[in-house]
Amino acid sequence: MSDYAIGDLQGCLKPFNCLLEQINFNADRDRLFLAGDLVNRGPDSLGTLRRVYELRENVHAVLGNHDLHLLAVAQGSTDSRRKDTLTDILEAPDRDALLGWLQNCPLLVDIPEHQAVMTHAGIPPLWTLAEARQRAREVEQVLRGPQVGEYFANMYGNQPAGWDNALQDAERWRVITNHFTRMRFVDLAGDLDLGSKGEADAPPEGFMPWFLHPHRQATDTRILFGHWAALEGHTDVVNVDALDTGCVWGGSLTALRLDDLTRIACHC
């Protein structure tokens, strides 16, 4: 059995199938840990989501910001955007099964066999892993419960920018969601800059990549994340592995074999 952590698919079905061939994926023995953003921007969001759904017994996927956007559009909480490639999913005869499965995906998944944890954007530097797990569970319960409509109606927005234990309801859910699915740069207080998407060595003034925060909570657990294609798969930080290598932008789709940390890429 082999376990593979794979970066953002974003509707790139052909590279995904190519990568599965390269790693000799076997549904009888292998597991896939997908870093979120399964859909959107790429040429075949519906085919990609169907392929992941087909492999769901072998898949552990976390929710990314594009996945949540799809769910919000499907709920009627927001409109599709000009660059979205989600229409085929929304009009598919099997949309309810696909979206129902997606909505039940977590924000954070533990991989104890490899002393690792995966989220879409990373682990906020001033949160302990225990706090991260607990806050992820809060939002996951909302996504699966009667308040889901309120969640999607209030999901969008960049404020509040930082964590406060006193946050409640929709604001609390939004801040948790932004940290797990949109985070790149933070300041010393841990507040997010959600307007910058560039390279790690060119942060906004007063900010830094979350994984370079000087007071990041120490842990021996490996952190696996996607979301930040500009990193090109590199953080230069021990036990912090970037997986998004920009397939949808013409880069590559990358799998990290967790058994020996070998990287396998399919160029897009």
Task: Describe the protein's architecture and organization.
The chain is of the alpha/beta class. The chain has a single domain (3-267), classed as Purple Acid Phosphatase, chain A, domain 2. Helices cover 29% and strands 16% of the residues. The chain has eight helices and twelve strands. The strands form three sheets. Strands 3-2-1-11-12 form a five-stranded mixed beta sheet. Strands 4-5-9-10 form a four-stranded mixed beta sheet, covered by helices on one side. Strands 7-6-8 form a three-stranded antiparallel beta sheet, with no helix packed on it. β1, α1 (13-22) and β2 form a beta-alpha-beta unit. α6 (129-143) crosses α8. The two termini are 27 Å apart. The mean pLDDT is 97.
Task: Name some characteristics of this structure.
268 residues; globular; alpha/beta; 5-stranded mixed β-sheet; 4-stranded mixed β-sheet; Purple Acid Phosphatase, chain A, domain 2; 12 strands; 8 helices
Element order: H for helix, E for strand: EHEHEHHHEEHHHEEEEEEE
CATH architecture annotation name: 4-Layer Sandwich
- Structural class, by secondary structure, is alpha/beta
Q: Which oligomeric state applies? A: single chain
**Describe the biggest sheet?**
5 strands, mixed
Biggest β-sheet: strands ordered side by side in the sheet = 3-2-1-11-12
CATH homologous superfamily classification: Metallo-dependent phosphatases
Q: Report the uncertain regions.
A: none
Per DSSP, the total helix count is 8
Strand content: 15-25%
Shape: globular
The CATH class designation is Alpha Beta
> Kindly state the mean pLDDT as a whole number?
97
Number of strands: 12
Alpha carbon gap, first and last residue = 27 Å
Number of domains: 1
Kindly identify the CATH topology.
Answer: Purple Acid Phosphatase, chain A, domain 2
Task: Compute the CA-based radius of gyration.
Answer: 17 Å
DSSP helix fraction: 25-40%
